[in-house]
Amino acid sequence: MKFTAAATLALATTAIAAPSKTTSEQPSKRQAGCSSAVSLDAKTNVFKKYKLHANNFYRKEIEELAIPNLSDPSLEDAARAVSDTGSFVWLDTIENIAKLEPAIADVPCDEILGVVVYDLPGRDCAAKASNGELKVGELAKYKSQFIDKIASILKAHPNTAFALVIEPDSLPNLVTNSDVQACKNSASGYRDGVAYALKTLNLPNVVQYLDAGHGGWLGWDANLKPGAQELAKAYKAAGSPKQFRGIATNVAGWNAWDLSPGEFSTASDAKYNSCQNEKIYVTTFGAALKSAGMPNHAIVDTGRNGVTGNRQEWGNWCNVDGAGFGVRPTADTGLELADAFVWVKPGGESDGTSDTSAVRYDSFCGKDDAFKPSPEAGQWHQEYFEMLLRNANPSF
Ligand code: BGC
Questions:
Q1: Rounded to the nearest 5°, which phi and psi values hold at 332?
Q2: Distance from the CA of 212 to the center of ligand 1, in angstroms?
Q3: 282 C-alpha to center of ligand 1: Å?
Q4: Span of the secretion signal (predicted)?
C-alpha cells in the first residue's frame, strides 16, 4: 500500500467553481498552523493546550480502504468517527518521510501533530515482524537521510506544533534482550541513533517522548532501574534536550490504564512485577527515571486497549484477537505524571504477517491469540479494523 503525497491532498478547488455563494456563506476553513512561530514549553503538559490532530494519512486509510470495504455497512458512522480521532503518523522508512508534509498541511493552531520516528538500523532486534530497511552499521545513513531530513521539515514548519515518539521498542530491547545476538549487534547503533535523534529534533515547536515499553516489559522489579538508566543515558548523551518531556508507554500495546487487579495479577510470576497496569507503571517507572536524572512525564497509547483478557501471556504483542479501540486521546488522565492518553498505533494497521513463509514472519503472529490471517506490519488490515470498531470501549 502506498500513498503519494500529491494524491493525499488533491483537494484544491479551482477558479472555475460556480461563484454562487458569497465567501461568508462558505464553510469556514481553518488555517493550517499558527500565525507565528510555536514555542512549546516542555516543562508543561502541552496536551492541555493542544489537541492531538486527526491526521489526514489515517483519515485517508479509513476513507479509501476501510469504508468502501466494510463487511457491515452499519459500521460506517463509527469508522468516520475513528478518522476524526487524533493519532500519530509513523515515519518508518526514508521514503515515508513523504507522509509528513501533507500531514502538516491541515493542522490548525490549537492542535499538535503526533509523529513516530522509527527507522533505526537493525530495527526490531528481538523480533522479525518490524525489521526495517536499515542494516546494522548504517547509522550514518540513519542520521543524514532520516533524522536530518525530518529535522529540516520540522524546522520549515515553525508555526506548527509536533509531539514526537522516538523509536518504539529500541532501548527496552537493549535492557531485556541483550542476550539476543541481533540486539547485541544493534546496541551501539541504537544508543547513538536515539541520542542523535533527540539532539537533532530538539526544536522549539517540538516536544519529545522516548519509548519506554510498557508495564509488562520494563515494569519487572529487575528491569526498572536498568531500564531507567538506559533511557537516562540516551537523554544525557543527547545533551539533556530542552524539548524533552519524558516517555511514551504502551505504544502499539494492549495494557489497561488502571484495571485493578491487573490483567496478569494472578500469573505465577506476578509477585515480581508491581506494575500490573499502566498507571502504576507510569508512576513507578517515573520515579526510577527521576532517580536516574531525567524528565519523567508520560503519554500512554490507548488506541487498542479497550478490551482486556485477550492475551494468553503478557508478552504477546501481535494483532491480539478480540481487541477494541480504547479511550480517545485526552489530557484528562487523572494522574499528573501522565500528560495524555494518545493513539500512537493506528488501529487497523497490522503488527505483523501471519504468513509463515514470509521473511518477516514472527512466531508471535502465529500464536493462538493472534488474529489470522494478518498482513505485513503496517499494512491495512480490514477485518482487524472492523473488530476494533465493534469492540471499541467506549463504543463509537
Ligand atoms: C510497522 C510499521 C508501521 C507501524 C504503524 C509497525 O509495526 O513496522 O511499518 O508504520 O507499525 O502501523
A1: -90, 85
A2: 17
A3: 24
A4: 1-17
pLDDT at 359: 98
Closest C-alpha residue for ligand 1 atom 4: 378
Whole-structure pTM over 0.85, yes or no? yes
61 lines ligand 1 (CB under 6 A): no
Closest atom of ligand 1 to CA, residue 349: 12
Q: What is the pLDDT of residue 5?
A: 36
In terms of CATH, what superfamily is 46-390?
1, 4-beta cellobiohydrolase (3.20.20.40)
9, pLDDT greater than 70: no
Give how far Cα 379 sits from Cα of 35, 180, 245, 361, Å. Answer: 36, 27, 30, 14
| Segment 65-122, tens digit of pLDDT | 999 999 999 999 999 999 999 999 999 999 999 999 999 999 999 999 999 999 999 9
- Give distance in angstroms: CA of 315 to centre of ligand 1: 18
Q: Is 33 helix (H, G, I), strand (E, B) or coil?
A: strand
| Ligand 1 site-directed mutation target among 2, 91, 92, most atoms within 8 Å of CB | 92
